[in-house]
Amino acid sequence: MISPTLESLRLFIHVLAASVWVGGQIVLAGLVPSFRRDNPEALRTIAKAFGRVAWPAFLVAFGTGVWNLLAVDAADAGTDYLVTLALKLALVGVAAAATVIHSTGKTKLALALGGAVGLVSSLVVMWLGVLLSSSG
């Protein structure tokens, strides 16, 4: 068996937290239309319950992301790595902002656009993370 390291534990926690954040959004995207049709009053309860799990997962992913950054020697990282990292960090901000807009929005546009932008940007963030981890 390969011996676990602190680095592998850090990466595992980061990926797990990101999976809860993004996976939960995907699951909700599949469930919401049915609930909206069959039990619309349950949507607020479901959204609040999801938020109690998703936002802590986001914070853990953010914290382990910072920890990951501290483990990278930026001077040795190439330009492609740094550009990819900058794009990932920008999209983390977009994902958080869009999700806040979705969570607090009162209009159909805010709910729809916030949810869609939050999910798509979160998916791209995960993909960029894979690119970064496979480059080194």
What do these coordinates show?
The protein has 136 residues and is mainly α. Helices cover 85% and strands 0% of the residues. It is elongated and about 55 Å long. The protein has helices at residues 6-38, 42-70, 79-104, 108-135. It has one domain (6-135).
Encode the helix/strand succession as letters.
Answer: HHHH
Oligomer: single chain
Largest sheet: none
Number of strands: 0
Question: Roughly how many Å is the radius of gyration?
Answer: 17 Å
Number of continuous helical runs: 4
The residue fraction in helices comes out at over 70%
Q: How many distinct folded domains?
A: 1
What gross morphology would you assign?
A: elongated
Distance between the ends: 22 Å
Structural class: mainly alpha
Low-confidence stretches: none
Beta-strand residue fraction: under 5%
What attributes characterize this protein structure?
136 residues, mainly alpha, 4 helices
Short description:
The chain has 136 residues and is mostly helical. The protein is 85% helix and 0% strand.
Element layout with pairings:
Elements: H1 6-38, H2 42-70, H3 79-104, H4 108-135
Helix pairs in contact: 1-2, 1-4, 3-4
